[in-house]
Amino acid sequence: MGAPKEPEFEFRGTCCRPVKELLSRIGGKWTVLIVTRLADGPRRFSDLKREIEDISQKMLTSTLRDLERDGFVQRTVTPSIPPRVDYELTDLGMDLLSPLEALGAWAVRNQHRVDAARARFSGYRPAAPHPNDNETHASI
Amino acid sequence: MGAPKEPEFEFRGTCCRPVKELLSRIGGKWTVLIVTRLADGPRRFSDLKREIEDISQKMLTSTLRDLERDGFVQRTVTPSIPPRVDYELTDLGMDLLSPLEALGAWAVRNQHRVDAARARFSGYRPAAPHPNDNETHASI
DNA sequence: CAGTATCCCCGGGGATACTG
DNA sequence: CAGTATCCCCGGGGATACTG
């Protein structure tokens, strides 16, 4: 009976569980950082940890696990002592780079337009302020 | 004088606060849904509320406010009683549609590869299981 | 080295009631 | 109609300690 009422995505005609999932995956704090690091070639766990530096062990592990689970990353264990684990992009992971780069390029190209909009928004807007913009109204 | 150690994004050479910001914006639960609705033309607040249906008033308001702030959406008030507020994509918002559609199309095209990866991942993996895959080991 | 276990915090998001 | 106010919850993410 009840499918647990997930909001049904509709993306310009095409239906959208996959879109929603991809969006929430790349919306994660570390995913894109890790993927772009791996774009330059395979990395050991400790390489990634060192290169990204601000990431916690836990988030590196769990983000990599999610990426492995979804098929973007291949995990290879070399059972030595100490153990060695390498991560690399799969074909699927490499394919993902294109739309990601398109989005990244767009963000960089249009950054100034967003910044300008923000300046306008927080600046003086004489007409039609939002109801509770609790600005101590300047009048007197 | 520490800048509050934000992880510095590096996206294939180009630096990346804007990429990070765009990613977290479209990673939001409702942003893309709203933007794609507006892609078909201007909508009143209540239209969006009705069309998206599962969204709460609060999230519709705050997501629209974020989109307005960043310059993707234009908000137009008609001070009648009851009031009427229309939202529409700005040029910036419409420009965003391209990379978004590219990403959406990719997600749909490659959905089966992700699904296949997941099936493999949760299925029987004889070699190199993760340390604590606490599977009640089938042996005996 | 490459993890796991535990504890904790904050903010995104939801529900409900109220308002100019 | 188009919001705001309040209260609440959960899970993403961080810190720290421990381990095969």
TrEMBL record, chains A, B:
Entries under InterPro entries matching the protein: HTH_HxlR (IPR002577), WH-like_DNA-bd_sf (IPR036388), WH_DNA-bd_sf (IPR036390)
PROSITE patterns, sorted: HTH_HXLR
Protein keywords: DNA-binding, Transcription, Transcription regulation
GO MF entries: DNA binding
Keyword flag Transmembrane: no
Cross-referenced Pfam families: HxlR
Domain HTH hxlR-type: 16-115
Protein name (Swiss-Prot/TrEMBL): Transcriptional regulator
Organism annotation: Acuticoccus sediminis
Phylogenetic lineage: Bacteria, Pseudomonadati, Pseudomonadota, Alphaproteobacteria, Hyphomicrobiales
